[in-house]
Amino acid sequence: MKNSITILLLLFTVCVSTAQMRKWTLQECVEYAVEHNLTIEQFELDLENAKIDKSDAIGDLLPNLNGSTSVSSNTGFSINPTNNLPTNSTAFNVNASISSNVTLFNGLRNIHQLNRAKMNAISNQYRLDNLKDDIRLNVANAYLLVLSGKEQLKTFKAQYAVTEQDLKKTRELVASGVLPQGDLLEIEATAANQQQQIVNGEGNVLIARVNLAQLLQITDYENFDIAEEEFAIPPSDILKNSAKVIFDKALTFRNDIKLSESNVDLAEQDLKIAKGAYLPTLGAFFQYGSRYSDVTQIPDGNGGVYTPNFTDQLWIFDGISYGAQLNVPIFNGWSTRNNVKRSQISLEKAKVQFEQDKLALENTIQQAYVDVSTFEKAYEAALKSLEARTLAYDYAKERYDNGLMNAFDFSQAQARVDNAKADVIRTKYDYIFRLKILEFYFGLPISLN
């Protein structure tokens, strides 16, 4: 029994450790963020409300149907409800009715309200999809920052490993009197500086991981990490398209543009609804009712009277009323006129905002297009600089090993290589992210493959 419990505990520990060691890919991070973001959940609830508004607008086109009944008892003087004659007795009365009203015409406001509700549901869907787009970009950027930090940290550790070898060799040369003590101090200072870089790099990776986890709304920061992958510059033909071509395509599918355009459509419907108040309203009504009273007296045909039972009275005293009602607006203190003016202003503002949003998108795409070209050149320049710095470092190391260069100059050559490697990593991920932004505006999904 003890052995079985021990085995189960070991299996549980292994399972927990495996779960804690999960490494997240970019695709998993993006999908998780979209599924668990609280703002998205709020927007989804807003979308559900918009769908309910649409149902309300459909209901406004239909006739209503209401039933009512009342039960009362009177003692003393009262009016007999069945013959409208005065009576002085105790009476038990029942009244029941069914009524229906329908709007036949109200300046087409009910039709415009239905159209607006449909458009508002579509607008809320665009709003939700636009938020998802923003989250995908933010997660991709945060993910690349973690990747960049991890790659830089690996570089720092590799550089420190080389310096440790140089430090060991320098100690031997100083001990044998080949090199002065100052060279050892210089190498030790370089090693200390690289250790500090490692500490800073680990801190940067931790902060980047925490920022990414917060975007995913994951609070277990210690057990959250991304997949250990190294990404080369992905192949892309995006620059074969001009910025104008990318912008024209973006206009056809970007959710922020569709949202802005839908706001213009909503404003147009609001104006139609406001103008509808100038027109008459025509409605129709129908009512069926009946009643019962225990003081009812009806001639029996033989010179006497009798009180019909409950069911008979419902049929005897039932009745139908129906008709139509026309309301013509004449003057309402300029309320309708002012509402129309407000709606016209709102429409113009929506049109201006739509043009501003298109201009902002064009500027963003133009900037992204320039950024891709700029960061591509910066990355290529960083590679060339690293190549040159590495050759210079190899030459300096050869001279240092042969006693032809002091430790200070050698450490400077090494520092320049370190800086060049850091520049390569930084410009590489800057270029990748700008490239992905531009592809995203062209309608391509976010992927590092």
TrEMBL record:
Subcellular location, record wording: Cell outer membrane
Gene Ontology CC: cell outer membrane; efflux pump complex
Chief localisation class: membrane
Coiled coil: none
Domain of life: Bacteria
InterPro entries linked to this entry: OMP_efflux, TolC-like
Keyword annotations: Cell outer membrane, Membrane, Transmembrane, Transmembrane beta strand, Transport
Entry's Gene Ontology molecular function annotations: efflux transmembrane transporter activity; porin activity
SUPFAM superfamilies per record: Outer membrane efflux proteins (OEP) (SSF56954)
Pfam families referenced in this protein's UniProt entry, alphabetically: OEP
Family named by the database record: Belongs to the outer membrane factor (OMF) (TC 1.B.17) family.
Protein name: TolC family protein
Biological source species: Flagellimonas aequoris
